[in-house]
Hints:
The protein has 335 residues and is an alpha/beta fold. Helices cover 49% and strands 19% of the residues. It has 12 helices and 11 strands. The N and C termini lie far apart (72 Å).
Amino acid sequence: MKRNQMENHVTRLQRFACAAMAASFAAWSGLGAATAQDFPSRPIRMVIAFPAGGPTDFVGRLLADKLKDTFGQVIIENKPGANGAIGADAVAKSPPDGYTLFLSTVGAIAITPNMRTDLPYDTLRDFAPITLVVRNTTILVVRADSPVNSAKEFVAMAKAKNGDLPFATTGVGSTTHLATEMFATAGGFKYVHVPYRGAAPALTDLLGGQVAAFFADAPVLMPQIAAGKVKPLGAASGQRNPMLPDVPTLAEAGYPDTASDNWYGLLAPAKTPPAIIAKLHAAFVAAVNDPVVKDKLIKSGAIPVADTPEQFGQILKDEIARWGKLVREKGIKEG
């Protein structure tokens, strides 16, 4: 084959390859658009990294029930363990098609990554934020028959005990543990850390007198507060909870730098198509803002949010940095 003929042959091959690539890209683009347009065509799985019956599960099931009107079936899958890491890892490794979502607390995606170097996932790399769903005020409570009636009285009692004060948490590195650390630092007292495997056994021992105090999310405590079994002393938050307007924040009581609100946010695996993220975001925001759903959330003690993916993404970055600083300063490690 002559040189000119060879060059012409190569040029034809290049043109054919380019045309094939363009056709393939066009077909892929059309498929992507059609996939987003038809989404969802099967049930969506929402993973919750805690057992059924807890506050995260309550919020997830409330939203799933409402989303039947928009998406059809949304299945709740409870994957508890390792401070949320088991559920987080399962979602991070799922196909990025919008059919597997993660309703997570701050722990699994902002605190645990600061305490472990062996996590199989990275929050900012492996997840696509959809929306912050609710904020939960962290409340300090004691038994109803406790002699203390305020945060200041509690600090005075703690100092008088000289470190011999059993304080319940839901585990090393949990939001309740970090709230306790922040309060102890602000109040200048020491305590005996008594970690539990969840809020239910911690509350049981608080009511039984085995521990003196406990920080927990407002939705966990509202039934006990309403029944007069525990006494709220202060909110580890930047603002008072709407359902507990007479309970001051710890900052109002003179203990700054104690805001440790928990929150629940919705995420998808990274690389989920933006069109599907947008569709999920619109549906979940509408569900959170539904008057009936919003009323139930507020009455449970949660504070509805429903922000944008960009806003939630910035919150993730800020929270990872904030909790990481505290974890390093206190030398907190899992295990």
